[in-house]
Specification:
Layout: H1 2-10, H2 12-47, E1 52-56, H3 62-73, E2 78-84, H4 86-96, H5 101-106, E3 115-120, H6 126-134, E4 139-144, H7 146-188, H8 190-198, H9 203-243, E5 250-253, E6 258-262, H10 266-296
Antiparallel strand pairs: 1-3, 1-4, 2-3, 5-6
Helix pairs in contact: 1-9, 2-7, 2-9, 2-10, 7-10, 9-10
């Protein structure tokens, strides 16, 4: 550690430039990671909500509704189906209008339609399910959220593609700039490196101080950027809680684990910090390695 501090003091301006570049790179990268994770988990949440709601005519019997429900279930495209009877619909109506007695007096369970809330396994099944329901006898109205889901999918794909392009460009430019600045630092120690080579020092021994310094910058920049982002998340958490009221959790299904994204939790923050640290250390040490390599040839 003392060796790293001495090296920083010998080239303070180059060291500051390297730190600032890494800081802004990691700051933007962490924000992009959190934003993409949030949008993907939000899309997953929407895709698991009731996708198709079918309302039946008053004359439609329960046996007809149950038969249609069984036919849909056997299709293999349905995740689950929830049956809402007239009485259930009336209870829901009373809960929604409990503060308006006049509306309660005007409505009875007999005039409210029975319905099915259908959860599709995939959004691509929505049009087919809706078209099938519209052709069935006793169906009054079919409502599904295909347009909303498609818009969310489009927005997420655009954000993902834009983020990948931006992240790739950011990483490329960061490595190039870090290589240039690190080359200045190495050039100042060119005579020292030549002397070490004459004394028989190995390449790894010569690289070691530069790589340690680079890892230190990557780790420090990552910790500082993550600390600022964490404070911002804590500050805006009340606003997010009010905006996302009614959504219990947002999660991303990984191979063998489900990562909870919302509500904000310590485990998600630790994973974000770990990825930020890995990225910061890797990109800084890679740039340092490439910069010093030409002086070792």
């Amino acid at each position: 550690m003392n060796e790293v501090i001495k090296s920083i003091k010998r080239t303070p301006y180059q060291s500051l430039a390297i730190f600032l570049i890494l800081f802004f790179t990691l700051f933007l990268s962490t924000i992009i990671f959190i934003a993409l994770t949030f949008f993907n988990s939000f899309l997953g949440y929407v895709e698991t909500r009731p996708q198709v709601t079918v309302y039946f005519q008053n004359k439609t019997s329960s046996s007809q509704i149950f038969k249609l429900r069984d036919d849909l279930t056997s299709s293999g495209k349905i995740l689950s189906i929830k049956y809402i009877s007239k009485d259930d619909a009336f209870k829901i109506y009373k809960d929604l209008n409990k503060e308006n007695p006049l509306l309660l007096e005007m409505v009875t369970a007999d005039i409210l339609p029975a319905s099915l809330e259908i959860y599709a396994k995939k959004p691509i099944f929505l049009p087919e399910i809706a078209d099938y329901l519209k052709k069935q006898a006793g169906v009054d109205e079919v409502i599904f959220q295909k347009d909303i889901v498609n818009q969310l999918i489009s927005i997420t794909n655009v954000l993902r593609f834009t983020a990948i392009i931006f992240f790739g460009f950011l990483m490329f430019m960061t490595v190039i700039v870090l290589i240039v600045i690190t080359s200045f630092k190495v050039a100042l120690k060119k005579e020292e490196i030549s002397l070490l080579q004459l004394l028989g020092a190995t390449d790894n021994y010569i690289r070691s101080p530069f790589l340690k310094e680079a890892a230190f910058f990557g780790m420090t920049a990552s910790l500082m950027s993550f600390a600022i982002i964490s404070l911002a998340i804590v500050h805006f958490n009340p606003f997010l809680s009010s905006y996302l009221r009614g959504i219990p959790t947002l999660a991303i299904n990984l191979y063998l684990y489900t990562l909870i994204v919302w509500p904000v939790n310590l485990y998600f923050l630790l994973i974000t910090l770990f990825l930020s640290l890995c990225f910061g250390i890797i990109i800084s040490t890679l740039a340092s390695y490439l910069a010093i390599e030409k002086y070792l040839k």
